[in-house]
Amino acid sequence: MRGWDARALTGMALVAVVLLAAALGPLLLPHGPEMPDFTATLAPPSLRHPLGTDDLGRDVLARICAGAQVSLLVGVGSVVFALLLGSGLGLVSGYLGGWTDRIVMRCVDVLLAFPGILLALGITAALGASLLNVIVAIAAVNLPVFARVARAEALALRRRDYVTAVRAQGFPEHRILLGTVLPNASPPILVQASLLLASAIITESVLSFLGLGVQPPTPTWGNMLRNAIGFLGIADWLAWFPGLAIFVTVLGFNLLGDGLRDRLDPNS
């Protein structure tokens, strides 16, 4: 098992910056994310507004920090929901096999038949644009991934000698599944979760950009980019800084996921 390398440490540092911005930014910054200043509309970056202001005079830095809260909430919420439901279905499916496996995996295949972003768009369009519905939509996209990873682990683990030994001792199936199979299947599932966090944040930004995510006046990086389209020629910082926030966050979670995979890989 390897230690944390420079790549993983870089990912941790980037994620820590985003977490600090989300937690402390709204508390420390003098300008609120929804506080307009009509005397400083479309103001370029300055000491008063380090990242400039938008067309209503709202501080871009404050809005990016507030948007980080939304992105992290949606990312973590959707991944946890998908992990719990998808991994549970996958473990049961792989461990029990038979008709249970066939039924569960055919349902998973139905979800996999749709491109992820189209499935998320369809769900949010049907349910309506709100924070909860965005979390549900992204969770539905990620659920099949967790189900397939967990099923593959369960199929391999149920044939291991120590699982057979526990079964021979007369323990009920649910105790074997929770006490023996789940702990040994957890490392690849956790690695997948760290990588899907980045994907969930991108999907949330796309939905907000298209107007199907969290609705204004709540600031999100996606609706900040959408608002910036009309001002690219005169205030390009409105697009640069939210885009940079998405880039840094996604890069951080991807690097952290790669480092976590190397550390948890028993063959490393």
Short description:
The protein is mainly α and 268 residues long. The protein contains 9 helices and no strands.
CATH fold topology: MetI-like fold
Query: What string, H for helix and E for strand, traces the elements in order?
Result: HHHHHHHHH
The structure class reads mainly alpha
CATH architecture designation: Orthogonal Bundle
- Helix share, percent: over 70%
Shape: elongated
How many beta-strand elements? Answer: 0
Instruction: Determine the strand fraction and express it as a percent band.
Output: under 5%
Structural domain tally: 1
Rg over CA atoms: 22 Å
Low-confidence stretches: none
Specify the biggest β-sheet. none
The average pLDDT value, as a whole number, equals 89
- Counting DSSP H or I runs of 4 or more residues, the number of helices is 9
N-to-C CA distance: 5 Å
What is the CATH first-level class name? Mainly Alpha
CATH superfamily: MetI-like
How would you sum up this structure, described in words?
The protein is mainly α and 268 residues long. The protein has a single domain, classed as MetI-like fold. 73% of the residues lie in helices and 0% in strands. The chain has nine helices and no strands. The longest helix is centred in the N-terminal third of the chain and has 37 residues, at 60-96. The N and C termini lie close together (5 Å). 42% of the residues are buried.
